[in-house]
Design brief:
- Helix content is 37%, strand content 12%.
- It is an alpha/beta fold and 401 residues long.
- It folds into two domains: 3-236, TIM Barrel, CATH 3.20.20; 329-388, DNA polymerase, domain 1, CATH 1.10.150.
- α3 (102-114) crosses α4 and α4 (130-148) packs parallel to α5.
- It is globular.
């Protein structure tokens, strides 16, 4: 697309709409977008349009299918009736607010897409007019995009607390992913984070409805004839929940509601909120929670195998897979040449792709050299203490720390 057309697309979005998008998109610290690589940068654009970059809150997001896209991450409105104790958009807080009509937002999304600024939409909202009324606006935006503009790009829709079953069904027909944030690991922690939300009726029940629809209704009624994936999110470190609490709830959601992703967002204090004087959560805690989540989802670990401390927390110094291996594999290493896929996944430094590569190359002969594993992209310094190569422990240099 030439410069003149791009400039036309930019300036054809009314400046008040651009300002609304900015106001409804900034300061969303507890809204994750897909397998996040957070970024406020945009794809390159002509120099004379560079001043517009700050107007667009773009997240470079990794999607479930492996693609990476620039995702417009915004809200239908930053007005909110809820008074969540941690949230920058809580009711009564003195902060600029804005709302977008479904037509305004859909039109802006399409123009940003045509200009190459965004290739998908992550749409959430503050609660304004109740859960049902707010959900109607989110659905209307997605309907306009899909029907009026024949929008083919990725859409992630939030399900609002209190949304009705028919609304959840309609959102699932329009979106590639749907989600509802539990925020707390259980009813007790949610009551401290968000005093006016109900854990089971408003938050957990919609996740059950999503899974019931996937199991009972033919996907030919869905967008691209496939029901969307579902996920949730937790606020970590504000109200004293343990890692055991968070991961136990996550495991139950995976088992019963088939969520494909849980997000763990570190608490960071926001001024003019009841939690403004609380300390921020340790970033390593969030990292360890994600590592443990992937052990459950992708590495065939059982929940009971996660290495919690007696107080219910993960070790901040070592990743949980390494800690498990040091306990169970240090004196009983795994033979690389005979291990099955599940056993290979237990070895630090070996992931799903490299485990499959090992199984493939074993058809051509035994693996006897640690350098062969290195060529497969395996971190041999991590794997070596826990493996045998044709009956022998490979030589390795122990880490200093």
């Amino acid at each position: 697309m030439d410069l003149a057309k791009i400039k036309h697309l930019f300036y054809n979005i009314r400046m008040d709409v651009l300002d609304k998008i900015k106001l409804t998109s900034l300061n969303m610290p507890f809204e994750a977008a897909e397998d996040i690589q957070r970024s406020q940068s945009l794809p390159p654009c002509p120099d004379d349009l560079s001043s517009l970059k700050d107007r667009f809150p773009i997240t470079q997001a990794h999607l479930p299918n492996g693609r990476s896209i620039p995702l417009l991450k915004t809200m239908q409105t930053s007005v909110c009736e809820n008074d969540c104790n941690y949230c920058c958009f809580r009711s009564g807080r003195d902060t600029p607010r804005a709302s977008l009509t479904p037509d305004e937002l859909a039109s802006a999304v399409v123009k940003l897409t045509r200009a190459g600024i965004a290739k998908g939409l992550f749409l959430s909202s503050g609660l304004a007019g109740g859960g049902v009324g707010t959900q109607d606006k989110l659905i209307a935006t997605a309907e306009i995009l899909r029907r009026k503009y024949q929008y083919q790009e990725y859409i992630h829709l939030k399900i609002m607390p209190g949304a009705e079953k028919d609304q959840i069904f309609r959102a699932m027909q329009l979106a590639d992913r749907v989600s509802i944030n539990l925020e707390g690991a259980n009813e007790r922690s949610l009551s401290k984070l968000a005093p006016h939300k109900t854990f089971f009726e408003e938050l957990l029940k919609p996740l059950q409805i999503i899974e019931d629809i996937r199991k009972s209704v033919s996907p030919h009624l869905a967008w691209k004839r496939t029901w969307p994936s579902s996920c949730t999110q937790f606020v970590v470190g504000a109200v004293g929940e343990s890692d055991l609490d968070l991961l136990q709830t996550t495991h139950q959601l995976q088992t019963h509601f088939k969520i494909t992703r849980a997000y763990y967002s570190n608490f960071s204090p926001v001024t003019e909120t009841p939690f403004e004087h609380l300390p921020p959560s340790n970033p390593w805690r969030q990292h360890r929670l994600y590592q443990a989540f992937f052990l459950l989802r992708d590495y065939q670990f059982d929940f009971e195998e996660l290495p919690f401390s007696t107080s219910g927390y993960l070790n901040l110094e070592k990743d949980p897979k390494l800690l498990w291996a040091e306990t169970y594999l240090r004196h009983t290493p795994i033979e690389i040449n005979t291990a099955d896929y599940a056993q290979l996944l237990r070895i630090p430094g070996i992931g799903a792709i490299s485990a499959k590569k090992i199984i493939q190359i074993r058809d051509y002969g035994k693996i006897r050299d640690i350098h062969t594993l290195s060529k497969l992209g395996i971190s041999t310094s991590r794997a070596a203490p826990f493996i045998l190569l044709d009956g022998w422990r490979p030589a390795y240099q122990p880490g200093l720390f």
